[in-house]
Write a structure and sequence with these properties.
CATH superfamily of the largest domain: P-loop containing nucleotide triphosphate hydrolases
GO cellular component, one term: primosome complex
Oligomer: single chain
Helix content: 25-40%
Radius of gyration: 30 Å
Family: Belongs to the helicase family. PriA subfamily.
Shape: globular
EC number: 5.6.2.4
Cofactor: Zn(2+)
Number of helices: 22
Distance between the termini: 53 Å
Strand order of the largest sheet: 10-11-9-12-13-8-14
CATH class of the largest domain: Alpha Beta
Number of domains: 6
Pfam families: DEAD, Helicase_C, PriA_3primeBD, PriA_C, Zn_ribbon_PriA
Bound molecules: adenosine-5'-diphosphate, zinc ion
Length: 733
Amino acid sequence: MYNFAGIIINNEVASLDRIFTYEIPEELKESIKVGQLVKVPFGNSNKRLYGFVFDLKLENQGKIKLKKIASIESDEPLITDKDMQLIENMKKKYLCTYIECIRLIIPTGIMKGMKPKTTDVVFLNGSLPDNLKKDKYESIYKIVEQNNGMYNRSQLSKKFNISVSSINTMIKYGALTISEKVLTRYDSRVYDVYGEKKLNDFQEDAVNTILYSNKRKFLIHGVTGSGKTEIYMHLVKKMIEDNKQSIILVPEISLTPQMIERFKGRFGLNVAVFHSKLSDGERYDEWIRVKNGEVKVAVGARSALFLPFDKLGLIVIDEEHEGSYKSESDPKYNAIEVAEMKSAIEDCILVLGSATPAVETYYKTLKEDYDLITLKNRADGALMPEVSVVDMREELRENNKSIFSRALYESILETLERKEQIILFLNRRGYSTFVSCRKCGYVFKCKNCDVSMTYHNNKGYLICHYCGSTQRIPSVCPKCGSKYVKYFGAGTERIEREIKRLFPNARTVRMDRDTTVKKDSYERIYNGFKNKEYDILIGTQMIAKGLDFKDVTLVGVVAADLTLNLPDYRAGERTFQLLCQVSGRAGRGSKKGKVVIQTYSPESYAIRFSSTNDYRSFFKEEIKLRHDMDYPPFNKLLLLNFSSKNEQLLIKNIQIVGDFLKNKAKEYSNIYVLGPCPSPISKINEAYRWQIVLKGDITYEVACFIKKSIYELLKKVYNNIRVSLDINPLSLL
Ligand code: ADP
Ligand code: ZN
Ligand code: ZN
């Protein structure tokens, strides 16, 4: 039996991020286990805090008198040995704290002492005694007989219009009784069966390769509609047969009713659905169900990765290139990296799937870290759409100043006449914008960083948000001398207005962040469009993925340049991905689809290769560029984001940190310090934002050193300046 325990305290203060030693009182020595939830006295006031048993020891070195653990709060360990390994790995990778990791693994409800929800339902108990042999009681008796144990008193009263006092009378005389029943807060509805499909040869090969080769990590590169989801489902089925469990991650936004219907329709109550929009109670219940071994497969957003499965056999990450796999709050983990750690710890299969894999991921298949499986054709025989790229400079020359090219206008007209549906797509993000020449397509880019410079409306100059260099906007284009140098303006609302003006009879609906703030608005718009209540859906990147509408035969990309010129080294990759994804929306049914892409830079490789759906060629260009510019996967980036309501204080202190880091960087030949400069989103919630970007061989030791140094340098102002570190951020916005 052990005498001492290392405890992780449930408290987010960074200085408490260590293991505290406590004495185990005699009466707890037999029952205490690693991973259990406990309560311990803490601090001067000995306030009781929750903590987790990290390890158990016979002896304690150092301090003589220790505080004692107050109580054990969970019968079983909530964190397993494997979780502990994962936490150690994550701490190294993301410089996060123990408790931040633990909070990913354990739902908040548990640390608030949540219990399963119960209610006192009414049952028949005995026969009706003589004194109650009246019509009133006899009819209540019948009702309860037919609904035995289904409702509590007030539910019975409401549903069948009977008085609670009559029920109480019947309980008093022993005709009825009440008993506690656990309520299910998770979705326990029965779904329509989603039948298994016979796999085609390509799918069959993929399944066999994944199950029977000695490799563990796979990338399925399959065009949209190639039947990847069906492959995942067959893998899950095999896991169930082998008594193993699976996790299927999908991007939050693809967690559509359609996706859930498919999995629940095939695997029924063996499925748990897990994502950030669940209530604490729903989360708790799903988590407990997994812990109790009632769940065979979890479908969910990145948080589902941490569900407490005990025999995990498979992790699938669908649409692996998606940004939502990277957490934006601490710990800023990347679900793919964590899945890789988990796959190694649990020795389980990891499958990533995408029509447009992330450049980093595809690169790993070349290094033979992952096995590549390619699916070139759509599974249901649907044809790939016909894609045409329209040069908007040409439109200007022909004196067409509308936001729609003649080709797109004609196509909309024809599609409306055929009574088929249209999606118009504009990836507009309000805060940053680039400047270009409408005549020749020239875009102002930073020479050091190869990213577009951003226009600052109020100041009249351009800034590079990587290195901070600035430039006045010239009045004429440096390339062709034209005066038509402008920043990019149109948004989804403007497109909607134009459509209403040009096609007054078309029924349009808009989907973007503004129209989907209300809880069910996404579903409402989605279902409305699906049921053909609208002809045209106009939207931002929200509509680019996951949607599967059979009657959409035209997709228009109003301005591909918006993504192409994001101030981000991934702009090219994002453009390629988005264009392929939106194109995948056209012609999912038996009708052939058409895609029109409008742009001022039709020669850009991202646009050229997306129009022919040629991932390999795109990848070759992109990886060369990454190599030349020292961007990932060839180097790491570390984004240091500083924010404060006091702009002066912020600028002064970030300069101090910047000077310090630049000085230090001289000792390393391979680390570059970019900035400090204002973040592309320069103000959020009243707080100003500045950033420093480090590029190079940033090891764990280097990152730790930087974190510590910043803490030292900003010690006095730490309450007024927030600093966040992000290793390999997905974007530098
Ligand atoms: P992906 O996930 O690659 O986009 P899906 O799995 O959603 O593709 O499949 C696209 C469509 O093809 C779906 O409607 C699906 O039902 C259908 N499908 C998939 N596999 C088969 C198959 N083996 N036979 C017939 N239809 C299939
Ligand atoms: Zn020009
Ligand atoms: Zn720059």
